[in-house]
Structure formats: structure tokens, C-alpha cells
Amino acid sequence: MALFVVFQTTFFLTLLSLRTYQSEVLAERLPLTPVSLKVSTNSIHQSLHLQWTVHNLPYHQELKMVFQIQISRIETSNVVWVGNYSTTVKWNQVLHWSWESELPLECATHFVRMKSVMDDASFPEPNFWSNWSSWEEVSVQDSLGRGILFVFPKDKLVEEGSNVTICYVSRNIQNNVSCYLEGKQIHGEQLDPHVTAFNLNSVPFIRNRGTNIYCEASQGNVSKGIEGIVLFVSKVLEEPKDFSCETQDFKTLHCTWDPGTDTALGWSKQPSQSYTLFESFSGEKKLCTHKNWCNWQITQDSQETYNFTLIAENYLRKRSVNILFNLTHRVYLMNPFSVNFENVNATNAIMTWKVHSMRNNFTYLCQIELHGEGKMMQYDVSIKVNGEYFLSELEPATEYMARVRCADASHFWKWSEWSGQNFTTLEAAPSEAPDVWRSVNSEPGNHTVTLFWKPLSKLHANGKILFYNVVVENLDKPSRSELRSIPAPANSTKLILDRCSYQICVTANNSVGASPASIIVISVDPENKEVEEERIAGTDGRFSLSWKPQPGDIIGYVVDWCDHPQDVLQWKNVGPNTTSTVISTDAFRPGVRYDFRIYGLSTKRIACLLEKKTGYSQELAPSDNPHVLVDMLTSHSFTLSWKDYSTESQPGFIQGYHVYLKSKARQCHPRFQKAVLSDGSECCKYKIDNPEEKALIVDNLKPESSYEFFVTPFTSAGEGPNATFTKVTTPDEHSSMLIHILLPMVFCVLLIMIVCYLKSQWIKETCYPDIPDPYKSSILSLIKFKENPHLTIMNVSDCIPDAIEVVSKPEGTKIQILGTRKSLTETELTKPNYLYLLPTEKNHSGPGPCICFENFTYNQAASDSGFCGHVPVSPKAPPSMLGLMTSPENVLKALEKNYMNSLGEVPAGETSLNYVSQLASPMSGDKDSLPTNPVEPPHCSEYKMQMAVPLRLALPRPTENSSLSSITLLDPGEHYR
Amino acid sequence: MKVLAAGVVPLLLVLHWKHGAGSPLPITPVNATCAIRHPCHNNLMNQIRSQLAQLNGSANALFILYYTAQGEPFPNNLDKLCGPNVTDFPPFHANGTEKAKLVDLYRIVVYLGTSLGNITRDQKILNPSALSLHSKLNATADILRGLLSNVLCRLCSKYHVGHVDVTYGPDTSGKDVFQKKKLGCQLLGKYKETIAVLAQAF
């Protein structure tokens, strides 16, 4: 102890003596002046670099000193910066210090000087500033080289939002220099005649390729050149977000973060920001190779607590974020494995799984999710390593998906990923009776019952329904039940039952068993009740039905209807205490009529029809218009009728009809109202409110007027479709009267004509016979005109027609047969030729009584022949000769002419004559009486007249006028009886 | 051996230049023999004409792609920033003999080749997303290499010229970004102008 005290005293004495010595030495050498100041420039960083030494510094001694530095620009008096720099100085040490200039160093000359003071606590006050060093001038303008314009700083990297000063140096002050930032002119401050500086405040980030800033030197309008720089503006480095670390295996810490904006720039001016992970307890650092995550190796098992600092850094800025945590609180488990299901039955299963072991005595919290039938159930369970959970209350025959995830139960950090698997429960017997309904068609002697049932829901089927059992039991006559098995998925069956009561039981069956039975009873007379149908209106595709409650024991009600157009029977069960329901289904279609029947179910399961209702879920306007007939058209009215129009098969209840009538008259008829059609035209409208009234008498019309009508039905939704109007024109007022007169007249005329036609022969014979009555003939007047006193008319009945023969000349003169052009040869002419004018009778085959006469002025040969006999006239014989006389004019002319010839002009030399029988003269003018159809006189007793006719006249050339050639001469003077 | 070192090697260097070729390098002809590795094609002149036409056809598109990618003020100040004011650009005498024209062409292609190499390198760094420009620059450099080979073959086989003094394009590695953009634009403007004359001359 004494030794220690002695040592301590000696130490303090020594120290005190040393201190005293130092003070004496320094006091002698003060002040300490900075010397050898040298200033250099760094164009890249736009900084001045100062280096100096301190004179008079004691050997091997360190002193804390403060250096005050002054920096002037352009001239020494223009001090732009003054500052102190404190440091510890050693003997003979070269000191360095840098100053970054906001103005590019190339644009101005800088001056630097400094002074110093000792700031060491070991020396007491007072301390004195040294003298200023001399000004050091720095100028780089001289090294710019050739060129008329320079812009600075080159390729400067700044942060978005910072302030930047740029400048240009123009060699020629005559040049006018304009500078632009991205095409927009900027204005600056002239530092000297050659230099102008521009302060750009809060520069924006435009692109990572840099921002072009350029200046153009010009004289007048003549450009002397453009020079520029590229300013690289970096986005501001953001602080990493959501920084966290966790481990899955206590070997590696996985740290993640959101890096934010990438601050990388083109031209390699600045790469993406780097991230460094630093752990303060261990002092370890790791440069991360990824921008948003980094792995940290856990090397010391004993270290439980970690203090991480994530440092983001680029050329301009550094950001950091820190987290402190206990390793066991950052356990992110790997997802469980070996997920299995054991003892799976219809409603239960056991789920097992395993967890990756972390450390001993680790407790895990696991969460189980069970998905099935659209539902999700969640269970939490705490386990050690092997997990197990009993899943109960499952639905039979259902596929489930179960998954599990786990976390550290002691310090929950986050759940692991899910691990899951599917499983299916076993089937069970259906749990509910099928919903059964029936429709009954009663026929003489039996009922046709169609049973319908709805498929059981998956919830109640408990498996796949394989078949349905239908058991039919006669309640009136105890007998064996009849069982029918109908394979699924059928949902109906048809039964033909006699007129007895039957009980029908229906069960659904799957592979495990049968469902409870659904029972329905068919009574003897199931549908005998007459129920009046009531109309209802649906709204929004729904029908609201209500009915009167039924007295007695009712176990429920059933409403059934048919879906259209499928015509599938649908039904709905309603409880016994309910007397209304709403039928709503997507199957309801607008414009379709639905018929609802409401049944009450008795305790004996017998259905009794209570009410019928019919309606539309939405009424539509009629889809078609009736076909209208117009009846009883008169001059003042007509009747429209559309009896065939069916009001039942319409898309709405027909409420009546609208009859539209158009006429030229402006005024509507009584009972009609004015209406405007969709096309804007006006017409008259009549409304019929009774849908069964399908006729309308439109009266008070004008005769001979045109009307147009159009009939359309209407429902609550509107009228039928537009159609064209039908035109009706009323007849004339007297036309009916005329019809009443004209029709009988026409009938009478027709009757007369028919009679005339039927009695034409009689009429002919009576009115205009073929052989006219000479006494009535017009010839008589002629004869009278000739004043023949011996007028005698032959009685036709006494006359026997005969032939007249005409004999040709014996000299063989060529003779033309009348009506023919055939020439007779001489040989032929050696025999007398005869012309038969009138046959004695038709088809006369033999000689008949006739009278022949001779005239010896005729050809002798002919007379010699003594031929006298009847020669029948062939029907084909030419009637030309006879035809010559058919015209009365010809007759008259002939008479006038030939009469004279016959008396005096016949030449003596004529040796041949023709004779014409007057019987052959059709003086009556009846053409039909020509020889083609000659009258058959019974006798030809005498020849009335004969006369000689020159051959020239009698046989004219065929080419001559027939009026001349066809002459029949009747000379009264030579008329013989 | 000296012959190889003094004559063939520089030629091979020129044929296989890399990006960033340096300042003008005069190659002094030595009395060396002309040596080529492969026999020249019979139809060399046609191939040369075809390659010149191909370059001439794509020069303007390359020029437009380039100055568009540089941003303002380049597209609107082509005459001031992209004028063909290229120093040391080898001259071309269109009225000379075929041999003289081929020698001139050789010098020009070497100059353009090195310059395009510099431009391609710069643009890949400055405009890494301008893929169309990069593709066009590479395609042009490829054709220039083929043209240089053909010109060399022609000179060697017909005129026995084994050595040509050449100058390279300016080295831009020490320049600031704006100067690189400007020099590249000037070079491509000069290229567009020259290649039209060359295509016409052959």
C-alpha cells in the first residue's frame, strides 16, 4: 500500500513538471501559422482541394487547432465562404481539406486564405489567431482550350429537387448567348463579361438518361455554335419499407424489405442503390446482392437478440432502417407435411399431419380449415410435432378439402403456408322422404295416376340415389301390395288404377338404404269437384296466391301448375296454417298463361281440389289480330265479324277489341270516338269491352263511299300489332233495286233462249220454212210489177221437185261445168251432159217420178238421146249454179237484162241453150235451202217455166263476175203451167 | 517476319477493329507484299457497289434514329449540332482512278468503322433502352466490315496494294456526355453525306 502511494505521488509530480515545461515552450513559439498553402481543383466534384502545414509545431506533439478558411470568387474582396476547420495537428503533418463549390470552378477564379488558432484544452487561455496566409488564386479558365463557348459543369450528378448552378464561358463578348433547359430558355446572372451563371432551383427528374442543357452563341441571327452539358438528376433515395427478418430453421435469417424507387441513371452515372445489412451485436456486415431481400447466416446459437440496420446507399444519399428482435419471436414455420385422413366414415374422419421440428419442447399452434358443400369451418389445435384432429359432423357422401397451417405457439409471428388434401365421406341412407305429387286423369272405369317426385337434395340423399320404390296398396280391397322399382334419375311414373282408393308409398334408395316413405292416397273420385276458375295477375314474374281456409283436418296444401313450354308439372307444399303463398320461379315467361290448382291434403293423405286460378306472370299485348269478315254490305252499313278469333291462346287476357274506322268524312259516326294512330293519322275508334262480342255493325254510312277499318284486340298490356286497314266501299243506293229487277229479267231471257233453242226446228218450220210460201213471197210484187195477168202460184205441197238437165252442145264445144273448172274432152262430150239442179230426194238411189220436158231448139243429139230419168245429185256436186241466184239483186238484174235478150237478142246462130228450173231458184233468199240441203218435194209433176239462155250467159268464164254468170231468167212471157 | 509485323498485322488490326479504337494511327507502307487469307471473289466491284448502296439506303434512317434518341436540342438543331464538321475525315476524290478511289474508300471505311464503334459503345451505355438504334448501328458496322474486306481484296488482287495510311475516328472516351452525343451526331451526319457520294462514285 505504501509502495502504491509512493508510486502515485511520483507519477503526479512527473506529470506536473512535464506540463510546466510544455507551457513554457509553446508560449515561446506561438502563434502557429498555416504555411505552404496549395490549392488545386477537382473538376469532377467541382471542389477546391487545400493542403498546408503548420509552422512552429513542436516536435512529436499533437495539438488541436482550428483553421479559419476564407474563399473569394473573382476577386479577393468577394468572399463567398468563410468557415472553420478543426483538427488535431501533428508535427510536420500536411493537412488536407476540400470545399465543394456550387459554381463550376471553370467559370470563376477563386481565392483562398486561412488562419489558425490553437484549441487545445491542455493550454490555458488566451489563444490568439495567427495572421492570414496570403491569398492563393485558382483559375482553370486558361486550360479550357480552343472554342468560343463552354458550358459547365459537365455531367453533374444531382438529386431531384436540389439546386444547381450552371454557367457558361464565352470567349467573345460580342456573341449573344442563350441557354436552354429541355428546350426552355433560362436566364442567369452575369458574373463578368465572359461568364454568366444560372441558378436552377429544385431541378426535376426528367429521365434517367440525363437532361440536356445547352447554350447557343450567336451574332445577330448567325449562330456561332451550340455547346451543352448533360445534367444527371437522380431520384431521391427512399428509406426501405417493411423491413423484417424471420427464420424457418434457426440457421438462416431471411430479411426482406420494399426498396422503393430505383435511383439508377444512364451512362453509368449512378447504379441502382446498394443495400447493406449490419448487425450491431455481432458487428457483422453483409452487402446484399438483391434489392429487396437478403439472407443472414446464423452462426452463433447463443445469440437470441439481433439488431439489424439496413442501409440503402447511392452516390448522393444514404438511408437506413433498424429492427431489433429476438430470434425466437421471428419463427416462420415451414408448411406441415404428411397430411392424411384416417377412419373416414359417413360423418367423421381423423386428420393427421406433421410439423418440421424446430427445437426441443417447441409447441405449435395449428389451424385447420375444412371446405365442403360451399361451407368453410375452421379449427385451432395446439400440438407438439405430430398433429391430429377429429373432424366430426360431416355430411355423408361429401368431398371435403382440409388443410392445415402452423405457427410458433409461444410467440406467434406468422402462419406457415397451407398443406392440404381432399377426402370423401361414406354414404348413408337418405334422410328425408321424397317430395311426391300426382296428377289424375279419370277415365271410365279407371284412373290414370302420374306420380311425380323431386330429386332429393344432396343434403338429404346422403349418396347417389339408385332407384325409387313405389308401393301401391288398394285400400278398398285388401290385397297384396304392388311394388315398382324405378331406376334413378327418373322422376315420375304412371299408374293405371281402377275405381278404388289406393295408398301409394314412394321411397328413395341409395347403396346404403331407403329413405322414409312419402305417402299419398288416391280416392275413388279424386277430381270430381267443379271449381270455378279465378283470374289472378302476376307481378315481377311471381304469383301471389291465396285461398280460403278449409274446415276440417288439413295437414297441408299443395299448389300445382305446369311449366311452359316444357309442360312439366310443378308443385309447392304449403303448411296447414297457411292460406297464401307466392309462386316464384325463373321458368315463368311473360305472355304465357299459367293455371294453378290448390289442393288440400287431409289427414288421410287425400288431396282435394279447392280452387283454380289462372293468370299471366306478365301480360303482353296480343300477338295477332283477328281475321275480320265483312258481311251484309249495304249502302248504309256493313257488319264486321271475327267469330273465329280465339281469346284463350293469347299472351294476355283479351279485354275487348278496338275497331278503327277511316272515312273521308271528318266527323266520326255515333258510338265512335276520334283517335290518332301511331303514324299521326286520324281515324274513328270504337271500343268493344266484351271479348266474346266478335261482331260489329257499322251503320249510318253513306252510299258509294269508301271506308277503311281495322280491328285489333287489347289486353291490359295494350293492343295487337299494327296492321293495314281493309277497304270497304258502300254500294249505290239504287243498285239493290236494279238487282231485284235485272236478275229476273236476265233469268227470263235465258229461259226464252233455252226454249227457243230446244224448239228451234218447230220455230223454223213455223216462221221461216225452207220452202217459202209463194203467196207470201216478194216475187209476187215483182210479178205484179210486170203486170202479168196470169199470175199463178204453185202450191208447194203439190210440187214434186225434179232434176233439170242441161245438155251441152253436140259440136263438142268445150263446156265448163258450173262450179268446176274441169274441161270435158270431146269424147266425153259426145254424150249429153246434164246439170242436176235439184235432187228429187236425199240419197235417192233409184229413179223416181219426175217430169221431163223437151225443147227441140236444144241440141238434137241431146234430144235424140231421149234420156229422161232421175239422176241423183251428188252432195258433192258443185252448187255454184244454184248459188248464183242466192242474191235477190242478182236476180233482179238478170231479169232486167236477160229478159230483153230472151225476147229479141238471141242470135239465130245459137245452137245450144241452157235451161234453168225455177224450182232451183232460191227466191226466198234462204241460203240454207240450197241443194246442199234441198227440200224434198213429194212430186215433180210439171215444169213451170223454161227459157233459152245463151250459153255465153249461162256458162260464164269462172273468172268473170259471178253476178253475170249466175243468171236465172224467169220470163213471164214464157211461163208455162 | 518484319514484313508481317510491319504490313499484314496493321491490316489485320484494321479489319478486326474493336470498339474504342484510338487516335489516328498512320500506317506507313513498307515494301511488303500484299497478302490475303482467302481468294477474292470475281465479282468484287459489284459487291462493293451493292454494299455501298445498302449503306446509302440505311444511312438516313440511322441518322434520324440517332439524333432522336439524344433528345433536345438535337432534333431541332441539326445544322448546328450535327453538321458534318468532322476533323481529320479522309477525303474522297471522285475523279481519280479506280485505284485511287478504292484507296480513298478504304481510308473512309476505316475511319467510319472506328467512329461507329465508339458511337455504339457510348449509346449502349447512355441509351440502354434504344434497342432499335443499337441494332441499326451494329448492322451498319457489320456492312462496313464486309465492305472493308472487299475493298482490301480488290486493292490487293488487282492493284497489289498492301498498305494504306489510315486515320481513325476521334476517341470520345474522355469527352463529356454532351460532347459524345454531339460528336456522334456530327459523325453520322458526315457518314450520311459521304456514303451518298461514294455510292454515286462507284
TrEMBL record, chain A:
The parts of the chain that form a coiled coil are: none
Q: Which GO terms describe its cellular component?
A: apical plasma membrane; oncostatin-M receptor complex
Q: Which SUPFAM superfamilies match?
A: Fibronectin type III (SSF49265)
Signal sequence interval, chain numbering? 1-27
Principal localization?
A: membrane
Instruction: Give the location in the cell.
Output: Membrane
Where does the record place the Fibronectin type-III domain? Answer: 335-428, 433-528, 622-733
InterPro entries documented for this protein: FN3_dom, FN3_sf, Hematopoietin_rcpt_Gp130_CS, Ig-like_fold, LIF-R-like_Ig-like, LIFR_D2, Type1_Cytokine_Rcpt_Type2
Keyword Metal-binding: yes or no? no
**How does this protein assemble?**
Heterodimer composed of OSMR and IL6ST (type II OSM receptor). Heterodimer with IL31RA to form the IL31 receptor.
Protein name from the UniProt record: Oncostatin-M-specific receptor subunit beta
Specify the taxonomic lineage: Eukaryota, Metazoa, Chordata, Craniata, Vertebrata
UniProtKB/TrEMBL annotation, chain B:
Q: Which domain of life is it from?
A: Eukaryota
One function term, GO molecular function aspect: growth factor activity
Q: Which InterPro entries match?
A: 4_helix_cytokine-like_core, Leukemia_IF, Leukemia_IF/oncostatin, Leukemia_IF/oncostatin_CS
Q: Where in the cell is it found?
A: Secreted
Question: What keywords does the record list, in alphabetical order?
Answer: Cytokine, Disulfide bond, Glycoprotein, Growth factor, Secreted, Signal
Xref: PROSITE patterns: LIF_OSM (PS00590)
**Entry's SUPFAM superfamilies?**
4-helical cytokines (SSF47266)
Can the keyword Disulfide bond be found in this entry's annotation?
yes
Gene Ontology cellular-component terms for this entry are:
cytosol; extracellular space
- Give a GO biological-process term: somatic stem cell population maintenance
Q: Which residues form the signal peptide?
A: 1-22
Main subcellular location of this protein, as a coarse class: secreted
Outline what the protein does.
Answer: LIF has the capacity to induce terminal differentiation in leukemic cells. Its activities include the induction of hematopoietic differentiation in normal and myeloid leukemia cells, the induction of neuronal cell differentiation, and the stimulation of acute-phase protein synthesis in hepatocytes.
Q: Which family does it belong to?
A: Belongs to the LIF/OSM family.
Protein name as catalogued: Leukemia inhibitory factor
The organism's taxonomy opens as: Eukaryota, Metazoa, Chordata, Craniata, Vertebrata
